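ok so i was messing around last nite and threw this chain in just to see what happens. nothing serious, just curious
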Amino acid sequence: MVLLTDGGGLRKAALRPIVGIEKVLRFLASVYPEDGSTEQVMVNGAPGLRFSLGGETDVIATARVDDGMVTGLYLVRNPEKLRRLQEVELTR
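result:
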């Protein structure tokens, strides 16, 4: 499992890929508060998740799946990229 993040220098993100399920879970627990909401969305034609805080999109997450196993997670937190996604409107 590998985690790649994009904070655009404006939001907390990993500076390098995080490798290993335990390290990925620790990172995710450190950046995403428990009081956020999550909903399923389609991102570039594939399933993803939108994490929101206070009604605003904080993270768009997509995954790579190989042979039925999640092998990669990709998180976008860069506000400029999230703004463009909202303009196109993510669908459920």
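not much to say yet. The two ends are 26 Å apart (CA to CA).
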